Amino acid sequence: MTLRQEAYAMIDSLPDDDSIRFFIDMIRRFNVVTKKTQEISGDQNSLFEKRQAFLHMEELKKKYPFPKDYDYEQVRRENMEEKYGCID
Description:
- There is one protein chain.
- It contains three helices and no strands.
- By secondary structure, the chain is an all-alpha fold.
- The radius of gyration is 30 Å and the shape is rod-shaped.
- 80% of the residues lie in helices and 0% in strands.
- It has helices at residues 3-12, 17-63, 72-84.
């Protein structure tokens, strides 16, 4: 007997319509919970991927560090002037 046949046999063995309604309601609730669980696990996979990307960037930062005298502000100013010209 297949799983589907076993499920049909269980439904056929229920004593009245109220039992069948209860069974159907339980299946509907289970489907809602299953969908929510899948959404949560999808979110967790996305979070896992983001964390892996962040850790990879941290490894690259350790492997190729900026020079100690690197001036972020100076580089930003030079790039702004190159792109937009003199704003003053």
